[in-house]
Amino acid sequence: MTRRPLILLAAASAAVLGLAGCAQSTSATGSAGEQSSAPAASAAPAPAPFDGDPVKVALVRQSGAGDYFTSWGSGAAAQAESVNIDLTVTDARNDNAKHASDLEQAIASKPDAIIVDHGQTDTIEPLVHQAVDAGIPVVVYDLALNDPEGVIVTSQSDESMAQGVLDQLIEDVGEGAKVGYVSATGYAALDRRAVVWNEVVEENGLEQVFSTGKVTESTATDNIPLVDAALKQNPDVQAIFAPYDEITKGVVQAVNQNNLQDKVKVYGIDISNADIEVITAEGSPWVATSATDPAAVGAAVVRTLALSLAGELDEESVTFPAVTITQDFLAENEITNVTDLREAEPGLLLDDVVTADWLPAVSS
Amino acid sequence: MTSSSLSSTAPASLATRIGGAVSAGVARWGFIAVTVLLIAFFAATEPSFATVDNALGMLKFIAPTAIAGLGVALAMTIGGIDLSVGASAGFAVSISAWTMVIGNQVGGVAILTVLLGGAIIGAVNALLVVVARIPDLLATLTTMFVVVGLKLILVNGQSISSRMTLPDGTTAPGVFTADFLWLDRGRIGPIPVPVILFLVLTALLWFVLEHTRWGRALYAVGANAEAARLAGIRVRTYRAAAYIGCGLLASIAGLLLSARIGQGDVSAGNSLLLDAVAVALVGVSVLGAGKPNAWGTALGAVLIAVMVTGFTMLGLPYYAQDFGKGIVLLVALLFSFTFSRRRVAVTAGSTTTR
Predict the structure, then answer these.
(1) Which chain A positions have a beta carbon within 8 Å of B261's beta carbon?
(2) B315 touches chain A (CB under 8 A)
(3) pLDDT at residue A7, as a whole number
(4) Using CB atoms, which residue from A6, A89, A90 is nearest to B339?
């Protein structure tokens, strides 16, 4: 056996590597185009800087996995496409060290603007200020900053989400009811929802009989034993507020396990196809939740950036309002998934939030 | 029967000799060529790639992986492998956070605590492999689970952040100190601190492995432990030292991660293991070295940084990047195992040795 076959193999594998590189890059550009539908024709000509070469924007994400984050990303991509933004997306896959590196590298590549999606304050805030100091406009989404000076802060309005659902709770069970709370601390969104919860408990004289919960890699499953124990201790609880849908699902399971679904009402926040199934299941204790459309929110964040670059954004902080969805509403409209819900509840589309005549909402 | 033994016994034909020279060239330079071609391609297509900022950024980004990879390379010199590097790095992140935030200590104390912890993890690995004679793949896998679990127990499964609220309702006394954060965020002159650490540790490991008696002894133990023992080398001592060194390097990688994240993120380090093993394996093939070595490992890390950054600038999603990493690793392994004339002395997973 000579070595020539091996050399050929080496050459072939090098060629394959080269080809693979080319093929991947072309197909990726293609699929980025396919993800977004044809952009809606803008009613008015776009102002600078959107009237010339594509505007380069880096979207630095903590995570892009899961239903919520995937549709958030496709909404952002569709809106970017429609307004001549060349969006470079990095996804740290929940690795906070990589999130920091991604942001550093985004700053080094000197884009026209940066969007930071989620993140840990201690990790990301110094880099956000570094970007602002380098003269790069920054929009953050759902990232708590101690010093938001010079940064455009966007978030889904956790206050409106929690308030809407809790108004429903008070309507259902009345003042002075025995309630339980299942959540975790250390997450910006959950902490903001906790503030509203504490106010509502205070104002309505609710008696909080237990408080538990945690966020893990399998949140729904891991909360079942906690809530199960709490329910065994307090079977007379009337309502449970679990302000994160993964936790809510665990709570629903625990309530069902204890055969308390007729006595305990569960209130959640967020929505997905799986959630709708749980809510509309026969005899489900989950009676109300609050929802935003992640694709519409992703698109609205990009619009916020676009308005700001065009000099047309007046505020430094934008929150996207939520809609409260009840079990009855889903049943009446025979809604089985988020697509149905979007049709039945146009408020989710955010098509009158941060728009301009040259910047209509495009999220799918 | 390999072709190299054939060519050494029979008079080599011209074709065979040319073929041999070409394949040696491919084995020696092929990997460097792939790296240079990729860099040239990205520099040509992405204007922001070939900048000083980006070069330093890439080195900084990859420094923890590279340093953990140096640790794996060190464990590989004695014919072992260490699967607990990611766990050690994650342990370092939580322990440094705990020391500063809960223990209210200064950064220097946190660094010493972490290094001590890394050395202890290495020593446990050494005990299991050398004294208890558990195969290294299994021993370090077990250590990985124990260390990850121990870390979560110590911090109650929580990420520790500056001035966090403790379970009893009070506020934690300490913060991540500025001198500790300097490990990632600081610069000496224009060069970020992690880049300096990366280069210094690479040079140090290179010097130890190539220019000291200890280095020769480590390779000798890896090549043939029995022969090394007969030659008067204290085999057990060297094997233990390699694992302790690996634990130390992994904990240094963890210090950099901790300073980068700025909090005791419990999930940190999880993704480090596979990349660290990959760069150490790539290191074996670079320049046709055929053995684990420091500069090869560093180059492997640089290649991964180039690919990740370049592919990101091209707009490829992360799963395409993983595919690219896999292909490059495959080519590297082909170079070192298939085209190389030298017999490669990687016996990672010495579960088959007696």
Answers:
(1) 96-97, 100, 120, 122-123
(2) yes
(3) 54
(4) A6
pLDDT above 80 for A319: yes
Q: What average pLDDT is seen over chain B?
A: 85
| Average pLDDT score over residue span A254-266 | 92
Q: For residue B191, how many other CB atoms are within 10 A of its CB?
A: 14
Nearest residue in A to B257, CA atom: A97
SS3 A326: strand
Domain limits of chain A?
Answer: 42-150+294-321, 158-291
- A143-152, A219-228, B98-107, B322-331, range with the lowest pLDDT: B322-331
What is the rounded distance in angstroms from the CA atom of residue B169 to the CA atom of residue B154?
19
Nearest by CB to B22, from A7, A64, A88: name it. A7
Pick the CATH number of A42-150+294-321 from 1.25.10.10, 3.30.70.260, 3.40.50.2300, 3.40.50.1980: 3.40.50.2300
- Beta-carbon separation of A126 and B312 below 8 A: no
Is A158-291 assigned to CATH 3.40.50.2300?
yes
Domains A42-150+294-321 and A158-291 fall in the same CATH topology: yes
pLDDT at A24 (0 to 100): 36
Is B16–A88 a contact, with Cβ atoms under 8 angstroms apart?
no
- In this complex, the residue of B265, B316, B330 whose CB is nearest that of residue A96 is B265
| pTM, two decimal places | 0.73
Chains A, B: CB contacts within 8 A come to 143
Q: Give me the pLDDT at residue B4, please.
A: 42
Q: In chain B, what are the domains?
A: 46-342 (1.10.3470)
The residue that leads in pLDDT, B134 or A220, is B134
CB contact under 8 A, B313 and A25: no
For residue A87, the cross-strand partners are A57
Once rounded to an integer, what is the mean pLDDT over residues A153-171? 91
Residue B352 has a pLDDT of 33
Question: ipTM surpassing 0.85, yes or no?
Answer: no
- H-assigned helices in chain A: 4-35, 67-82, 96-108, 121-133, 158-173, 188-203, 219-233, 245-257, 273-280, 294-309, 327-332, 338-344
pLDDT cut 70: percent of chain A above it: 87
User: Which residues face A357 on adjacent strands?
Assistant: none
Query: Can you tell me the distance from the alpha carbon of B253 to that of B271, in angstroms, rounded to the nearest whole number?
Result: 12
**Is residue A15 scored above 80 in pLDDT?**
no
Q: What are phi and psi of B56, to 5 degrees?
A: -65, -40
Closest listed residue to residue A156, CA positions, set A320, A268, A299: A320
